[in-house]
Amino acid sequence: MKKNLKLSLVLMVLMTSIPAVHGSGIAKYQGKELVTQKDVDAKIKELKLEALPRDQVFMHLLVQMAEERMLTKLIKDSRMESDSEFQRVAKLNAEEFKRSYYMQKEARKRITPQMRQMVYEQIKASVKDKKEVRPRVIVLTDEKTANEVYGKIKKGESFAELAKVHSIDQTTKDKGGIGDRFLPEESFPAELIAEFSSCKEGVASKPIKTNTPSGIVYIISMVETGNRRPMQVPPIDSPEIAGQIEQIITRQMMNVVQADLSRQLEVYDLSGNKVPLVPEQEAKQEGMPLINGGVKQ
Fold first, then answer.
1. Which of 153, 202, 251, 271 sits at 20 to 30 Å (Cα–Cα) from 43?
2. The whole model's pTM is what?
3. Is 287 in contact with 251 (CB distance < 8 Å)?
4. CA 36 – CA 87 distance, rounded (Å)
């Protein structure tokens, strides 16, 4: 679950063109404190997310933890756990969780360096023709202000200083409108992707009307020299990519583990004939996992 949460947070951080939620770092329910800044900082450390932009990761975790704790309280107050139907379903889910956990554990035992390298090469191939970008952006809520700010840029005023004063994007405004990392172009709204592919380096775009989950905003963007490049994949042993690789292979290997377990069963039909539960090993491409847990050389 922690890996899934981490992955989901990484995907959220890609949405830097959407204004971030901001607040005091404390969540309350019915006037009573649910989550503190200390709680969230501890969760960031637990999930090893310190390398990601703190402000946006912090707020997403704060909201998620607040929702979880509110539901925990509501469940306790409802006394649902004493209901016989709840107990029956909870027991079934607990058994399913144990089976799933066992299968994942066995699957991870079979992961080899060759499998990791194969998936890593597939990831690199999947981004071969894609671009990543680190633009400066000024995000505004109304067209009139956007046009006024754009006019100031055209007159020679500093894009970075105007971002600090006017942008509502809490993840970039204090840094002059620029993020800490390169992001895939495809993670931005379609209107900005088109702008990135055609804009001149160092030239600000006209305000671009964009529909986001937070509502319509107007974005002025600028890509400086060297801030648009072919997409780069982190080293295979970096935490971000290593976790993704393990998740991909584990899902594949769970099928292999299931097949291995089924082969150990002896099942007979009503006529006494032994029924094969797993077909003979089919030929697989090099590097793919085999039913016996190895890989085809």
1. 251
2. 0.61
3. no
4. 32
* Structural tokens at position 74: 């509501």
In a domain, 49, yes or no: yes
> What distance in Å separates the CA atoms of residue 266 and residue 270, rounded to the nearest whole number?
13
In this predicted model, what pLDDT tens digit does every residue of 255-272 receive, in sequence order?
889 888 888 888 898 999
Tell me 208's DSSP state.
E
* Structural domain of 155: 131-230
Model confidence pLDDT, tens digit, residues 113-136: 999 999 999 999 999 999 999 999
CA distances from 128 to 80, 125, 132 (A): 52, 5, 11
Cα distance from N-terminal residue to C-terminal residue, the chain: 33
Residue 238 lies in a domain: no
CA distance linking residue 13 with residue 53, whole number of Å: 8
Q: Do 136 and 222 belong to one domain?
A: yes
Exposure string of 114-127, with b = 16+ CB inside 10 Å and e = fewer, is ebbebbbeeeeeee
Maximum separation of any 2 CA atoms in the chain, in Å: 90
Does 261 reside within a domain?
Answer: no
Nearest to 228 by CA among 184, 177, 194: 184
Rounded to whole angstroms, the Cα distance separating 259 from 263 reads 6
Instruction: Write out 136-191 in H/E/C secondary structure.
Output: EEEEECCHHHHHHHHHHHHCCCCHHHHHHHHCCCCCCHHHCCECCCCEEHHHCCHH
Question: Cβ contacts of residue 209 below 8 Å, gap of 6+?
Answer: 143, 191, 216, 217, 218
